[in-house]
Structure prediction request, 433 residues.
Amino acid sequence: MAKLRIGVVSPEREIWSGEADMVIAKTVDGEIGIMPNHAPVLGVLVEGGVLRVKRGDGDDIVAAVHGGFISVADNDVSVLAESAELGSEVDVAAARDALQRALSSVEADGDDSEAQAEAKRARARLRAAGQEV
Amino acid sequence: MGAQLRLLRRRIRSVKSTAKITRAQELIASSRIIKAQQRMEAAVPYEREITRAVSAVLSNSSDVDHLLTVAKERPASAGVLIVTSDRGFAGGFNANVLREAEALGGHLRGRGLEVRPFVVGRKGIGWHRFRGREMSGEWSGFSDNPLYAHAKEIGDALVGSFSDDNGIDEIHVVYTEFVSMLTQQVQVKRVLPLEVEETTEQPPGGPLPYYEFEPTAGEVLNQLLPRYIESRIYNALLQSAASEHASRRRAMKSATDNANELIRTFTQQMNQARQAEITQEISEIVGGANALADASAGKE
Prediction:
């Protein structure tokens, strides 16, 4: 079966690239799963989403992706993230810390949209690292 | 010791310490160029992809009527983003950028537009303050090592001002392009409104497929264009940072060479002066001895 060629890039660096069987990402419309020979799609990703790349041999790639786009064409999948981090690179303790801080500022001020976004990001990072949130 | 000799020694000492500083600056700059180049290369995949995505949306939706792509019929003011450095010691780097920005400003004023400068880098900010010119935006503190967050901040301000009814109608960027270690060139580019080129040429990598959009083409474009602008600004910042280091290295290299040349000349002059002093002392001693000898010969 054909494979997908995947590139996950952020403005500052290329996060990961390689071949895979399936990609699952979260767009503003909901989760989207992409398998080989998928129709061309250009979607907007949500803030604080988790991207899963299934590679068949159990060696899945999970990344926290904050905002950006996914574009699919001709079995080429590009994920353009404003910032992204592989699950294996996440500093769990730091992410938990960030989540705690963000949550306490949300509690103090319910309209603090920046803190809410920060909490989402921290959650995504923890989920990407395989932690329960 | 003769006065002249002392003076020369002092000058040599001071030139030597200057040479040490400029040499150190040169070495620091050369190591930073490499880092800056790597950062430029790391940003290439994202730029390529986002450019491709923008062209995909624009070529798919026949009625491209987005705020950011449509030129206003009567533009009243233009924003000019001027990318300079925070520190000097870089030869003509900032002077070149500011000169081009002035030329662009004159050109825009000639078209009847009001020019609003947005300045990056302490040197550019100082230049505008000294002349008492008002700036619509200023950012500093990251010229030699810009992050995407900085580009985002600048992009937000520019796009925000562009979308505002009383804001700017055009955005231009003046920055220094890093062509190679030896060549850096000041570039003047219009960022907004984007120019949508109607072309029958095939884009690289084959014709663009017919995309589905999630949620809609318009919404995707709304999200995509600001990111694209930020990516252009980020590119300009990175190029400018690499160019800054390259021109600093060159300026510091010629300063070091110059200092070494000065040290050589002064050392020669100093040796000459010392030799002249010794010769004079010998002739004085000989003269004195002769006079004594003559005097004692006269007594006998």
About this structure: Chain B touches chain A through 31 residues (CB under 8 Å). Chain B has a mean pLDDT of 87. The longest strand of chain B covers residues 170-178.
